[in-house]
Model the fold of this input.
Amino acid sequence: MTYTNGASNGTNGHAASPTPAATRLRKMLTEGNELLVLPGVYDGFTARIALEVGFDGLYMTGAGTCASKLGQPDLGFASLNDMREHAEMIANLDPSVPLIADADTGYGGPNMVARTVAQYHRSGVAGLHIEDQIQTKRCGHLGGKEVVDVDTFQQRISAAAATRKKLNSDIVIIARTDALQTDGFEEAIRRLKAAVTAGADVAFLEGINNEQEAREVCRALAPTPVLLNMVENGATPSWSVAQAKDMGFRIIIYPFAALAPAYEAIRSTYKRIKETGVTDIDPTFTPKKLFTIVGLKEATAVDVAAGGQLYGKV
Done:
């Protein structure tokens, strides 16, 4: 399904404002039943590549943000400011393409959750997920996780929903539970249902172990859309887009889709430099190609439209 950006001429002859990314994402989830496929991006370059390929939306991975922005593991190192700043940059590379961003635990009690939602909304983020781990959280595919009680989780989601309403925002609130590993499947479902009651738009069961759990969470939460976190070589089996759609998911995210190949390719090139003294980089990947990927044509057009000639010979 294709969604326009909402820019059209009004009766007064002026162009209408483009549809906010959050509204576009909400329509994707409420109109039709297509599976929304979101590649994981962790910086401006990976986001530009995903936009070049042509996805309907992007996902900003928290683990990737910790690794790329901070050089740290996903153990709660990233603050609201770290995540919000990163998300704003990615969301505004192409504001017509919705971005879902990790928001960890919301970074505190109800007031901090409210602040997080407000800041993500003002930064152009279309959707965010808030989880039920304790504040010193960790990646959902690591062991040793701890979760807060269901009332605290529900308060987080309630604060998020109230803030969305106060701001008259369409930002999509995704409730994530990590309770499957700590308290079992039935408790995880109970928490997701409580979160939906509190105002969540999408349910997210982290660390699904098998197809039975996958199908059951989609059935139990219906008609609420359910998100699948497809972390290769993690707790969840590797399923294709077609399999995820058949099981009933409405969103699938791929947090490791850029991280893993980037590590292999970069490490291989660095080793080659150290061992042979050359990079053997593809000769077609020139500096101009790099800059074209990250917006050279757009930057040139702005300069020309303003009457400049600064980039005329690049």
Remarks:
- The CA atoms of residues 48 and 294 lie 6 Å apart.
